[in-house]
Give the backbone structure.
Amino acid sequence: MTPSKQGRPNVLVEMRKFFGTINGWAARSRVGSYFRLSGSDHVRGPACLENATFCREIRAGLTTFATMAYIISVNASLLSQTGGPCICNLPVKAECDNIPEFSACKEVIRRDLITATAAISGMASLVFGLATNLPVALAPGMGLNAYFAFQVVGVNGSGNTKYSTALTAVFLEGIIFIVLALTGMRQWLVKVIPSTLKTATGVGIGLFLTELGLSYSVGIGAITGGGLATPLALGGCPAELLSKTTGACEVGQMTNPKARNIGRFHGIWTLLSYTSADQIPQLWLAVFCGGIVTAFLMAYRVKYAFIVGIALVSVISWPRGTSVTYFPDTETGNSRFEFFKQIVTWHPIHRTLNQIDWTFDNTGSHFVLAIFTFLYVDIIDATATLYSMVRFCGVVDQKDGDFPRSTLAYCTDAFFISVGALFGCSPVTAFIESGAGIAEGGRTGITAIVTGLCFLVSIFFAPIFASLPPWATGCTLVMVRHPDSPDRLVFWKTINLTDLNGHQKVGCMMIRQITQVNWHYVGDALPSFVVMAFIPFSYSVAYGLIAGILVYTVLNGLVGILVYVSGGRFEPREYDLKEYWTWKGTGRRPWFVRAIRAKRSDRRVDHVAEDSDDRGNANDSILMTRVKTISNDYSTASQ
């Protein structure tokens, strides 16, 4: 070992040599050649990627997984609220949770979905990295899972579409996505929607997730229904004290003077021993330990802030005998605790695997609407996220803005959308958390492969992920961003991205995305506001999109007709500031069109070459004939 100045071995120098040896070995291997690592003998296609080393890719993959791991428990908590294939025949579906058998079935569904989420995320990320050589990980997307659970299927199946039929819509969406990617329609569909509406969609979905994070079912219980007087009201009381008619807290609200002493506890153990029947201490545990601690860590750009916040609240909620325990002395609590004690185990998927149902009954219109919404949001998510990530990787073609293997990337994403439906999950998409791995130096598909392997390993830790209480992940829903772009973040989520020059790009609050809306012209501002308002208030992404597109079409259509008829004399104020829109898509033509044209061009070149060869041979023949004639004439003359 290399001695230091004090004569002792320098461990850091030896470690650098060791990792340098591994990087060199990997670069010279077939792995390095395939993934275009620095120093590899990659000769086909683009050159090697700068600063792409094997050890750095592994570190980036671990970082990406650490920032994405929350999706395992959050996605399972959201989707399990549908009840899956569990049957409840009560007219009021909210009362189904009072049936012990149905509640136990939902717990099994949640455990199944934990395994399914980890499995589909692992397989999708692994195959995506292997096929596309991009450091982007895939998982069930936030926003679409909430729309799937609370609008399409509904809580305990209270929606217009059955769980199995909704999975069929997701399955078909993946197939349609593949067709659109192969034909080039995907790029056109993204560009034909006004960008101001696409931005507003991200804001609306962010507010929708915030509303869920503050609710009772999958959140911290800070808000609840308010009845006819106020659509929403402050929560804070136990679920059993919610009014059966209005859904509001009859007693024990956060502002209730009798319960205000909860805010003046002198330590965490005072909170744990709080046993008031009027308020739930889990709410304050989530606010202080899950929200404020996480936000504090984010202020210092700690990449694992979400993990720390969720873990802190969960660890405090695991001991039995406290007022915040997730394992109360009930039948459900005992079942959870028995599963939790296994720590490491294999939980097979019992109830959600292959639940696709092709009998639509009378839900045809709702089925089509669900497909449209899934497809629209997923196309925008996948396109925006992938373009953002590959731009920071430095592999974007500056001529047309496309990136290598783009069609294969979208087809892989779409393929695992359909596979995820077979597992019982909502649509899979590219995750913006991949930017954390890119900031750590990830440049190749090895990053995504390592992330995928971590997800696959987490399958065996299902008891841990199944024991994360909803109030531990509720603040994640409040603070998580909608994955449209690195700068489009909801509330406090921050993430570091590295551009081509090595400078860091830092996301900011959701208000920054709102400023990207064109507020200067009413024809763009009003439809965008309608989208942002309707998505959370109607509890539906689809209705918000439809309302915004309808207002945009009617308003701008009438203005355009009047401007055209008047010859431009009656233009609205700030009409020159309106966002440019055209139905014509830009960018490269589909891959098969380029291939056909290239083949035709090659044939044309070959044909021209053959013609030139024929003409050359003919000229040679004529020349030889003339030479022979001259030679014969010369011979005759000489005789």
Residues 591-638 form the longest helix (48 residues). Residues 257-278, 481-510, 622-639 have pLDDT under 50 and may be disordered. The CA atoms of residues 1 and 14 lie 7 Å apart.
